[in-house]
Amino acid sequence: FPKHVKANEGRVRISNCLDKPSEQEVCKALVDLFHEKKFKQVLQGATEIVNEHPKNFTAWALLGSSYLSLK
Predict the structure, then answer these.
(1) Residues 14-70: tens digit of each pLDDT
(2) Cα(59)–Cα(61) distance, integer angstroms
(3) Which of 7, 22, 36, 50: CA 20 to 30 A from 65?
(4) How many Å from the N-terminal Cα to the C-terminal Cα in the chain?
């Protein structure tokens, strides 16, 4: 149904979700950056995750650890 507006909107939302890396993938990448001592990048990424997913313990732990490492 190419002219069905709601169907097209749903298709776009689904494709956007598939293009976006998962929360776990982003956290793993941030842990790798933390081990590389790229704390400012970790702070930036972890802050984005915490804003979207406030119950993500890994992101909170990375935020705290990165702040401590920058002192």
Answers:
(1) 555 555 667 788 888 999 999 999 999 999 999 988 998 899 899 999 999 999 999
(2) 5
(3) 22
(4) 57
